[in-house]
User: What shape does this take?
Amino acid sequence: MDALLNAVIYATSFLGMLTILVFVHEWGHYIVARMNGVRVEVFSIGFGPEIWGRNDKNGTRWKVSAVPLGGYVKFFGDASAASTPDSDLDKMSDKEKKESFHFKKLYQRAAIVFAGPLANFIFAILILATLFYLYGQTERAAIVSNLVEGKPAAEAGLQIGDKIIAVDGDEIDSFQDLVLQVLYSAGEGLDITVLRNGQEVTVTVVPQEEIITREGEVQLDPNGKPLKAYQIGVQNSEERIFIEHTVGSAVWAGVLHTGTIVKQSLRGIRQMIVGTRSVKELSGPVGISQVTAEAARRGIHYWIQVMALISISLGMINLFPIPLLDGGHLLYYGFEAALGRKLSERTQEFGFRIGLVLVLGLMMVATFNDILKFNW
Assistant: This one.
């Protein structure tokens, strides 16, 4: 019975969140396409056979499909959900060409494609801004109150009372900012700048990966395995800073927080490429469903926070310059702008095939990681 209940929680929390985020992403494409006079034939949540659908007054078919792992908008003139051109484009009348995505100006097509990821970023910012406005922010001051002997921070020369103001040139406003930098370091040295007796001092600290304990007890992940994280052996000040936001400051805090997440995520990806971080950290649908289920158990507040994080990830991943993703289309448009003409259909098709292989390969690696980590 418990296994069945867990399965239901995993499925509903994950699919519910995915449906919302896919709708937001595709709505970005849809609304900017309509603003530019493009006829949208299909707006689908999911792939495969249609379960439910209706036509609106503009002729768009809004539908829910059988496979709820994504979605798409199909523009007039598209041959498929991947927005490949229809073979009959040259037979269109002048009126039809005005409504076709493929006959729009380069900047219009680029704006329509970019609007999907942008919608995910805006959605995340609005979620974070709402939480900041309603609940404020409680942060801990980035002041060293204690050092663990023999750990990287003490060995590097940090001292009790130091106020940490920057890491690798990035401004530090709270102890949480420092923790984030250390967690994403993958063991790479960090240049930590502190304010000590009115003077700025910079030391290099190399984080170490350790098992996380709390009050002497080993902390476990949802699969019952010991939690590990990079640490430097610094304990923060007990001083708490409460920030009460206006609407404007909450939105700006949401923008800054989103930017920090993007920056640290890109840093993690770079570390995987150069080999300083293991690709085993990649997660697929199973791993994400675990996170969303755990958040759902803790309450709607946590679930919404996780949705903001995944929305940022979805927007960021879609901007990767891989054919098949939005970033791949934008890459093609970059070549078009440079060459003064569109790439040949054969070249684009070849790129899409490479993109499909890359995307499927990444999904297989991520899913394999999830299977190994999952507590079956």
About this structure: Residues 2-35 form the longest helix (34 residues). The chain has ten helices and 14 strands.
